[in-house]
Amino acid sequence: MKISEIRVETFRYTSDKGKDIQGHGHPAEPHEAQQAMLTIVSDEGVCGYSFREDITMAMGLVRPLLLGEDPFYRERIWQNLYQRQREGSALTDRVLDAIDQALWDLAGRALDQPVYRLLGAFRDKVPAYGSTMCGDDLDGGLNTPQAYGDFALQLVARGYKAIKLHTWSTPMPGAPDPKRDIAACAAVREAVGPDIVLMLDPFHYYTRQEALYLGRELEKLDYYWMEEPMDEASVSSYIWLTEQLDLQICGPETAKGGLKTRAEWIVRNAADISRVGTGDVGGITPMMKIVHLAEAFGVQCESHGSSIGNLHALCAMGIAGQFHERGLLHPFTDYETPPPWLNALPDPMDDEGFVPAPQGPGLGLDINFDYIRDNLVSG
Amino acid sequence: MKISEIRVETFRYTSDKGKDIQGHGHPAEPHEAQQAMLTIVSDEGVCGYSFREDITMAMGLVRPLLLGEDPFYRERIWQNLYQRQREGSALTDRVLDAIDQALWDLAGRALDQPVYRLLGAFRDKVPAYGSTMCGDDLDGGLNTPQAYGDFALQLVARGYKAIKLHTWSTPMPGAPDPKRDIAACAAVREAVGPDIVLMLDPFHYYTRQEALYLGRELEKLDYYWMEEPMDEASVSSYIWLTEQLDLQICGPETAKGGLKTRAEWIVRNAADISRVGTGDVGGITPMMKIVHLAEAFGVQCESHGSSIGNLHALCAMGIAGQFHERGLLHPFTDYETPPPWLNALPDPMDDEGFVPAPQGPGLGLDINFDYIRDNLVSG
Questions:
Q1: Which of B72, B74, B75 to mutate to test the interface with A (most CBs of A within 10 A)?
Q2: Hey, are the CB atoms on B119 and A75 less than 8 Å from each other?
Q3: A267–B262 CB contact, under 8 Å
């Protein structure tokens, strides 16, 4: 089997989310946005699909490395792409993620199996946590500590047994402020009681002392983990923090270097829990390697982000990452309705807080090809 | 899909190999020996197969953990078996290997794909090295340094570009003897010239000083690696040796603890090259985890032994283990004829010294079911 064609189709949809100048998502007035579908076509007619914001720019680099390759040679393709990343380019980890997920999708569709079973399955469903958007200044949004408490109650009513707060970051007024972060964390604990698992992802550029303050307060509030309170480029800061705290530190998340960076963080005790998402490291293939690395050192490994690839990896992890991240969630937005290019939600959650392993072939996305065709951005 | 039945069928064949009291293989007069075929049967009629010397004793432990399981839940099955190993029992790593390989075989047969493609392939063929039997006292065998030199020439004529010597161990007369080992290594280098890659696997219970002597002499002879010259239970001895030598130390091989032991060896710099075979760690599933661990630390990872599972793993390794081990070889025995329970050799080698990726479904073994049925040992 050979890869005969690679297509990127960019299409329009109406979004009710926007990004602030730091890249954090918030509710927004409905507006036109774009999404891209990557299609990897084989000469035997089987295709694999994945979705990303625009990856067109990288295709000039990607095509020569993929066309004519056997799509089942995922490891060779990934290593070739990875080596081509060295000089910096449009070939980001997110592009590698889109390609790797599309190749897994193609394999699963060719063999009529969901990806998590091809990987060698471990479980049928994964507990989810509700992951809030970052704090904002919207009335009825996430604008006060009490607003977080109120929203947390809604999430518990929906079935979540675990919740992660993203609190206020710049450019929100008054941010960053460790005391307000803790006030929100305390309001949530007060609202949901002792039995809901809680985590915090705050502003990412706190000092060591600010991060230590957060950690000590979260210990009193019985939080489960904190992630990325400081710049992850300073591994020494994370070693220092992890040594001080009983609270678990979870990371790295945005630090570059994928598998090898996670190896360094583990052997240097820079975090208690390792972290990986397909988008951070370039796909399901490297994500599984990081899971195996974590297993080698008896370290818990948690998934970052809501990608369908993460969900398959979670269902195939022998040392189980505990949670699928579901979100980002906000009182003004609806996570339970699929986006218009999908006919069904990739990660539906039952009333007990579990997301089932996707059962369709490949990644299991139920794609609305008509919608995409009808909304193409002309090239 | 569910596992509905697990069969172990033990059958007779005529062997021309025997084992000495330390477990090392040598040529022997033809005699009756036994082999076992493990069959994992699914309720959809697809079966997976693997071969081992007798594993019947473990089946009482295995059956309750496998029957009724989905055979694609390889990770869950492996973790359950692994945890059951803790108290020591008939459930050895070799039993886990037989089960894991049979499950991969089943998946590949169900999906009509060779295992290395399910894993995400990296290459189509692997260079082999010829791996000799241990030294002996047989005229015309491997009884003198010159005999090794003569045999090495035969291996080069066959197409091998790399050769590994197993020299003399107890209970052979005069063994162990580091000087005689080096004389054999020198005779081989003298015979084959500078362009053949050479490795040594000597007696496994040398002292640190004896191992250092071997290493220094192998450096002069431009050997590529040495493996297991000392008891692998002493990790500190390997750290000490690896620090002294430029010659690469390859290991661990027989040390228990699988993935986690390899992690410790890597971070403690107890070897230059990590080592794994399916039989040492319990299957293809943990072997791939160790490959991923090695990649995380930029460490080369070499395969141990000739199992068909190793060959699939080698074809899927992104940081390529350099060689498939072919053997064990001896002037008196024939490696090029398949055993009677197979219709074709699992790892045929071309004249350039390459073994192709197996292309049949699953593990790709071409099993002679008639032979097995006709030679069953009655239960």
A1: B75
A2: yes
A3: no
Together in a domain, A267 and A300:
yes
What pTM does this model have?
Answer: 0.94
A76 → chain B, closest CA residue: B122
pLDDT value, residue B378 = 78
ipTM: 0.91
Q: Which residue of A has its CA nearest to B263?
A: A296
Interchain contact, B72 vs A295, CB within 8 Å: no
Q: What is the mean pLDDT of residues B313-322?
A: 90
From the list A113, A289, A316, the residue facing B75 with the nearest CB is: A316
One domain for residues A172 and A286 = yes
Q: Are residues A40 and A144 in the same domain?
A: no
Residue span of the structural domain in which B16 resides: 3-112
A293–B288: do the CB atoms touch at under 8 Å?
no
Residues of B in contact with A260 (CB under 8 A): 296-298
3-state SS track over chain B: CCEEEEEEEEEEEEEEEEECCCCCEEEEEEEEEEEEEEEEEECCCCEEEEEECCCHHHHHHHHHHHCCCCCCCHHHHHHHHHHHCCCCCCCCHHHHHHHHHHHHHHHHHHHCCEHHHHHCCCCCEEEEEEEECCCCCCCCCCCCHHHHHHHHHHHHHHCCCEEEEECCCCCCCCCCCHHHHHHHHHHHHHHHCCCCEEEEECCCCCCHHHHHHHHHHHHHCCCCEEECCCCCCCHHHHHHHHHHCCCEEECCCCCCCHHHHHHHHHHCCCCCEEEECHHHHCCHHHHHHHHHHHHHCCCCEEECCCCHHHHHHHHHCCCCCCCEEEEEECCCCCCCCCCCCECCCCCCCCCCCEEECCCCCECCCCECHHHHHHCECCC
